[in-house]
Design brief:
Layout lengths: L1 E5 L10 E6 L6 E2 L4 E6 L4 E5 L4 E6 L6 E2 L4 E7 L20 H9 L18 H11 L39 H16 L2 E9 L1 H18 L6 H14 L5 E4 L2 E4 L5 E3 L1 E3 L2 E3 L2 E2 L7 H17 L12 E5 L18 E5 L3 E7 L2 E15 L5 H16 L2 H5 L2
Helix pairs in contact: 1-2, 5-6, 5-7
Length: about 400
Amino acid sequence: MTIEVRVPQLPESVADATLVSWHKKPGDSVARDENLVDLETDKVVLEVPAPVAGVLKEIKLNDGATVTSGQLLAFIEEGAGTSAAPVAPAVSAAPKLSPAAKRVAEENKVDPQAVAGSGRDGRVSKSDVVNFLSAKETVPAVPSAADAPTPKAPAQFVPAPSARAARADQRVPMTRLRARIAERMVQAQATQALLTSFNEVDLLAVNQMRSRYKEAFEKQFGVKLGFMSFFTKACVEALKKFPAVNASVDGNDIVYHEYFDVGVAVSTDRGLIVPVLRDADQQSFADTEKSIANFAARARAGSITIEELTGGTFTITNGGVFGSLLSTPIVNAPQSAILGMHKIQDRPMVVEGQVVVRPMMYVALTYDHRIIDGREAVQFLVTVKQCLEDPARMVLGI
């Protein structure tokens, strides 16, 4: 019996998706619920599982196609054996060459069988052929000045010949996620009056608290006590004092959100995504750490849901994990502010008249100056600083 494989129902906010790659080819056996193909939206990658066990009979759409909900993707012959499609011996198969790779190979008389392909299914690209040629050649010797005849006119500079037979470019279309990120960043720059304020935080008290309770915390809650829970709690306390930082612009109106949905930026191979901690003010330190760890793991595995990436009233991003000492983050529109964390670095500081070494971090608040005044932005950062330098404030609410 032939079974249809169709695009699953996409979320209401997603009009279409891009077919990224098939994990099976016609003639391959498939198991029920085995992932057949990946579909990429502007937020997440969706997997399309096989509805039945059998053999993939026919693929209707190739990689890169734009698809919509319910569109036909393939046919599966239910219960068929693997003998439905004979496979030619691998020894006799010729390597697949891109048009550019074929031209370079022919011009340089290269045997395609000798070139290892780096593309999908061993496909040989132009850069593979170029790299193969480069590995076979040596840099030509440049004649010495003693061997050259005495010039009658000033000698012209002749650059040394390139060590590569050819220099290649690769043109790769943006993924939907990368294109969406680019669109939102440009939108934020074009529609908001962005300004950034800075401060620095002494994290000695936070480090001491983490060192004192890390073993007991991990034993009781099954998760490590990190920095993000402290920063999330500090930001929530500051947002309560300065509601404009938690607001957004809607036309000519300012929408003041009476809840605290804090987005935490997570870096993945596909780009930066921002899952949201709902009602962050209601979460304990352990709840926050568990949520962030879960988000990070599922975001990198591509299994996070669109609903978990939607909304948010404020965002925190941590460039310090990559070594950034100072930066100006871009607001995640339609939000009005974002806090940037940075690298912790030991620096000499004057404390009560004495020079001491302290673990310091620069923090940055980029905000929409249309609704957030400089005074509010500065005082917001000061509140974050006070909460982190004296964590008891977060417990006492002062």
